Amino acid sequence: MVKTLLKSVRQYKKPSLVTPVFMAIEAFCECLIPFFMAKMISEQVLSESGAMTHILTYGGILLLLAAFSITSGVLAGRFAATASCGFAANLRHDLFYKVQKFSFSNVDKFSTSSLVTRLTTDVTNVQNSYQMCLRIAIRVPLQFIFAIIMSFTINPSLAWIFVVIIPILVFFLLSIMRYVMPFFRRIFKKYDALNNSVQENVGGIRVVKSFVREDYETEKFDKAATEVKNDFTRAEKILALNNPIMTLFINFAAVFIAYLGAKQIVKSGTLGGDFTPTELSALITYGVQILSCCMMFSMVFVMITMSLESGRRISEVLEQESDLVSPENGVKEVKDGSVRFENVNFKYSAKANKYALSDIDLDIKSGETVGILGGTGSSKTTLVQMIPRLYDATDGEVYVGGVNVKDYDLETLRKEVAVVLQKNVLFSGTIKENLRWGDETASDEELERVCKLAQADEFIRSFPDGYDTYIEQGGTNVSGGQKQRLCIARALLRKPKVLILDDSTSAVDTKTDALIRKAFAEEIPDTTKIIIAQRVASVENADKIVVLDCGKIVEAGTHAELLKKGGIYREIYEAQTKGKNEEKGGND
């Protein structure tokens, strides 16, 4: 996990390495200050002349040490901030870049809310922990070692008290850490649930308000927030034991050293003996420093304890390998828009008991228009998603342009296979900016041409700002039908060899739907068009119609051929045209 996370340090290695150097200088200077202060007092007291020589000499040394300590601390803070913020920025970039490379099956393993939490809260926790490690986690052991050495230099017999106390403190800290970690694992899972509740509510706010379910959603959010609060409270109560335990041992050590030190001073004489009051004072100062190091370490320990689970969750994403990768020396050209499925079976995971698609054999010639019909759950969308290799077939092969899709460079393949998904997505920005997702170099004339094909030009021009009209996030300021037509225009701008419309005219009236299909037939005859639809009228003029049921192709042929067979297609056709026929009969 640590190795995976540290790969994101990259260009911030230098400040990450410089910070500990300045922290070492600061710690060394702080540890020398009590020693020279004790020397100054002792030698001044023992001085027969009473001159200020010793005070001036040692005072100058103390000022120099203090200046070095302050300067080093400031520089360490600056470099640590640069390193930790840069590390966090790289970590977010690496996470986001990794998610962009995921296949659909990879994305299915993580919920949207979980990925958002990992990109925000988890990265912030790791960033804070990294900064603490660069500063306090480096300073603490160095200052601890320096203080121990100086303590033994002053009085070895009393310095052993610190050596005895430290293992006891470490035992308490590790015990607390072991006990509190399961709480943080639960907390971050509940964070995901909390974010998911917010995401669902904001995304579906219109549905919530139309069904007057605000109270229900508020109650659901409160429940998730309360669970996070309760677990955090339990964890913090346990972690709060650090401070009293540390304070207890600091006070105990100070009292014990003062008592034993005083006895030694009395035995050896007040002045000029083996152990002087000033040395006792210095030893107590070092004792406070040693145990303060333990206190600071407990702060680092709390931060690291919280960030360990965050780091594990981030590493889980970074270490996830995409199921779909471009082969070495992948094919860089798609010759034509022909599509062929050979003995294809598919299931969403290896553990699944049932195939979503089975025994799929389908041959589509370049330039053909193919309609796909089927009930909800018949895997129509899954079938077409294997053409641009959004999923890979579990068994069998899929060919585009006569080449196995697994042999193509992924970017090449997906540029030649444009998909208008069932769930239409527009991004914040102008209509022009959204359309140029299809081709960022497209001219205004090209934008108008594809919008006319998609029957979008007319309503775009009705807006005051025309093609410069700003689209709100998610396309909330345009209707469902307008959003679909913009998405179709965006796909057409790619000039693809294969165009897939996944129920992309469901919100469009039948007249506009017919105009779109007519424009396709006249303007892009060489493009293979695969249309998933619920309305028979949307596909009845197709060169071939495929009917799916329970993940299998049960019927295939032209409109006339399928009507003659009297199967599922005819049932759908008659159900959809029954009202029209009755209306005609009534008019007669």
Provide key terms for this protein.
Rossmann fold; 4-stranded antiparallel sheet; 588 residues; ABC transporter transmembrane region fold; 2 domains; alpha/beta
Structure, explained:
It is a single chain. This protein is α/β, with parallel strands linked by helices and 588 residues long. It folds into 2 domains: 2-182 and 234-318, ABC transporter transmembrane region fold; 339-587, 3-Layer(aba) Sandwich (Rossmann fold), CATH 3.40.50.300. It is 63% helix and 10% strand. The chain has 19 helices and 12 strands. It has helices at 2-6, 13-46, 53-101, 104-108, 112-154, 156-203, 205-210, 214-239, 242-268, 277-318, 380-385, 410-416, 431-435, 444-453, 457-462, 480-492, 510-523, 559-565, 568-587, and strands spanning 339-346, 357-364, 369-374, 395-400, 403-404, 417-420, 429-430, 470-471, 498-502, 528-532, 544-549, 552-557. Strands 6-9-10-3-11-12 form a 6-stranded mixed sheet. The radius of gyration is 36 Å and the shape is elongated. The N and C termini lie far apart (77 Å). The mean pLDDT is 84.
Shape, per Cα inertia axes: elongated
The number of strands is 12
Give the strand line-up of the largest sheet: 6-9-10-3-11-12
What percent of residues are in strands? 5-15%
Structural class: alpha/beta
Number of helices: 19
CATH architecture of the largest domain: Up-down Bundle
